[in-house]
Amino acid sequence: MSKLKLKQENIRNFCIIAHIDHGKSTLADRLLEQTGTVSEREMKEQLLDDMALERARGITIKARAVVLDYVRDGEAYQLNLIDTPGHVDFHYEVSRSLACCEGAMLLVDAFQGVEAQTVANAYAALENDLTIVPVINKIDLAHARPDEVTEEMEQSLGVDPADVLRVSAKSGIGVDALLDALVERIPPPDGDPQAPLQAMVFDSNYDEFRGAITYVRLMNGTIRKGQKIRFLRAGTNHEVIELGQFAPQRRSCDTLQAGQVGYVICNIKSLDMVNIGDTISTVEDAAKPLPGYQPPQRMVYCGLFPSDGQDFTELRDALTKLHINDPSFEFEPETSDALGFGFRCGFLGLLHMEIIQQRLEQESDIDLVQTAPNVTYEIVTKRGETLYIHKPQDVPDHGEIEEFRQPIVRVNLIQPTEFIGPVMKLCQERRGIQLATEYLSPTRTMLTYDLPLGEVIYDMHDKLKSATRGYGTMDYEVTGYFPADLVRLDILVNGKRVDALSFICNRQDADRRGRAVAKRLKQEISRHMFEVAVQAAIGTRVIARETVPAMRKNVTAKCYGGDISRKRKLWAKQKEGKKRMKSIGQVDIPQKAFMAVLDTGEASK
What are the angstrom distances between the C-alpha of 604 and each of 374, 429, 599, 601? Predict the structure, then answer.
């Protein structure tokens, strides 16, 4: 088919969007199989999830594009599929995919039903004016409830029940009808192949042999091998060395025309030269740049330090290498009195942070110490300056602060109706403000709350699963920064402030959290030859103290009776030795202690 002249009206661009674990990657496997894109011998589960971590965890982290050649009634069609992640942390990947498509396949689990990320993705698709093809997956499960799930989709998303397709991605039931529906319902792309070239850069990847591989969706015009092109935002000119499409491996061709999705290789040595959202045009007849994307918002920050200070250079090289293929996280060097040299890293969310940490440890074999994650705060000083605080150590003195603002997120929580009470209690404990309650069906409800992001990121998801026996789901989006009564709580170990243990919390919670952290650290810090004082303080005011007792040695064991003055002399000598040791002794703080700051704050509520 690749040799035939492709008609533009026979191109369909679509992505698969769904909540995590609803079967996107499995359905993509069946589509690849059904259209003959991949032979039976090459087929394996989660074919598009080619990262080792994706396969190990069974989740999609990176969106993948693939072209499907489909023949229907003797007519050849080209279906460009983009498989997207389902977790809220990777919504940025989904938003980029939506901008390159005319349609979206909205996948819903036949048992789990409509969940939080389903609603968020559906609204994002509607905002991009995409045609939605609703699909219920896993209909062959013994406990599937397709009729009730169809009712939920109608209630929450306004979907016509007659439009809902029923498939089983595992067994292949209904996949033929689904392919026909994609061709019939999704409109062909607009765009004129004869117009000046406009191609949207929606992703990029680095290949150690070919350099930067740029993923593009052509909006207008045609791109040819050997042509001189210009990246409009970056202002750089390059020659096209190779172009083609993913099927799912790279398949080169001589031209790509308006409406098609593919890749361009231009001998670019660094991914820093490729801006996601940039527009590619020709050097001679440059078109107007396309709107592009909003830059990703890093919401969670934490410090990463090598447990052995000698590994600092290796950690820097490993982070640089990872950043090349995942520009959505950022890092900058920082120094800690307690941990030495390391890096302050910004992530899209907690799962994103966990995945980067795992990749560092697995791919680079570096043993890391990670500080407790925290969110970005905004401070207006008395001089009228606005500061963005990524780490508690940067909070200025209380006298200089005019207003302390925290990020607020709008959270949608979907759960069975019988769990409304526990979920509302969970949100109220975290200073949530209820905005709406909506019944998706007689058995499922959606609650909408405004909550501080700092209360959501760490273990809100785990607590929600516990409160709803695993049936609750949540999705959130940042609404902005709002004033709050916040303070920086410092932890002192042996009279010295350990900056990596400092955290920001609400003033009303400070005393309780300070006591809880001090108690927890007393358990985590091992006993030394001298007494270790653990204190929690706000500014110069100490609000809690715990003491880790010294290891004792019975120095009078060798005294059998005799005068008491002999024993007193030995005890005095021991006391003097411990005092001297304390003045020069170093307290070892284990990795568990850094996460204890968060564990205690939530567990004690």
Answer: 19, 11, 8, 6
